[in-house]
């Protein structure tokens, strides 16, 4: 209730500033005043305060100068408008709740967090470490690769990311939960010469990507 009233007060403060600015055309000013009075009547209703009876321009009716029948009819119209607004707000809230539930139902139901501590593999050159999820029954990868570039010195090439090599596989939904097996696969690609033992400077190559090793878990 407090948050609802606070938002309404913020709206009223903003609209009041627009009205006092004197820059609005007459038609826009008239519509804005109607919006202000409608917001005030709605706020009074949800706070269980008295309903203020107004004329078509939003001005408060003077009971000393308005007949009882006119006051009654104006009260009926105002009550009907407030009730319609309450029903509209309730319907919008229900739609928001339904959309939120649908959104949660469509989002992945779980995720896999990976924290790479070290690569204990003597490669001798720079390498690329690729980690991904694999379905062994369908013989296909079901996620994108998490890539870490590893230097020949045994450390990440981006030294600032040392001890901070983390990834979250979030593209896992209800379909993945039904899979019989999901393997976590790590591939190592050597980046450098064609042959590690090639010491001939004339034939020396560099920057070539060559498969070096692969490993995986039975299931996750």
Structure description:
There is one protein chain. The protein folds into 2 domains: about 1-105, Substrate Binding Domain Of Dnak, Chain:A, Domain 2, CATH 1.20.1270; about 110-190. The model has no long low-confidence stretch (mean pLDDT about 80). A hairpin with a 4-residue loop joins strand 2 and strand 3. Helix content is about 40%, strand content about 20%. The chain is elongated and about 110 Å long. By secondary structure, the chain is α+β, with helices and mostly antiparallel strands. The protein has helices at about 1-20, 25-45, 70-105, 175; strands at about 110-115, 125-135, 140, 145-150, 165-170, 185-190, 210-215. Strands 2, 3, 4, 6 and 7 form a 5-stranded antiparallel β-sheet that branches. The protein contains 4 helices and 7 strands. The relative contact order is 0.10. Pfam families: DOCK_N (PF16172). This is DOCK1 protein. InterPro entries: DOCK, DOCK_N, DOCK_N_sub1. One of its GO terms (molecular function) is small GTPase binding.
């Amino acid at each position: 209730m407090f948050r609802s009233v606070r938002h309404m007060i913020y709206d009223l403060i903003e609209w009041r500033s627009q009205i006092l600015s004197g820059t609005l055309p007459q038609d826009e000013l008239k519509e804005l005043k109607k919006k202000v009075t409608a917001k005030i009547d709605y706020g009074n209703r949800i706070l269980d305060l008295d309903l203020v009876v107004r004329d078509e321009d939003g001005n408060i009716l003077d009971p000393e100068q308005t007949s009882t029948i006119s006051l009654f009819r104006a009260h009926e119209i105002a009550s009907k408008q407030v009730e319609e607004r309450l029903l509209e707000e309730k319907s919008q809230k229900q739609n928001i709740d339904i959309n939120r539930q649908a959104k949660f139902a469509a989002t992945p139901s779980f995720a896999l967090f990976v924290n790479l501590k070290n690569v204990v593999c003597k490669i001798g050159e720079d390498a690329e470490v690729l980690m991904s999820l694999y379905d062994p029954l369908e013989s296909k990868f079901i996620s994108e690769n998490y890539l870490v570039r590893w230097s020949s010195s045994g450390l990440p090439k981006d030294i600032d990311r040392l001890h901070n090599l983390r990834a979250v596989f979030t593209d896992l939904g209800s379909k993945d939960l039904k899979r019989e097996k999901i393997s976590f696969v790590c591939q190592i690609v050597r980046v450098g010469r064609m042959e590690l033992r090639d010491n001939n400077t004339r034939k020396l190559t560099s920057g070539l990507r060559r498969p070096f090793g692969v490993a995986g878990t039975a299931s996750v």
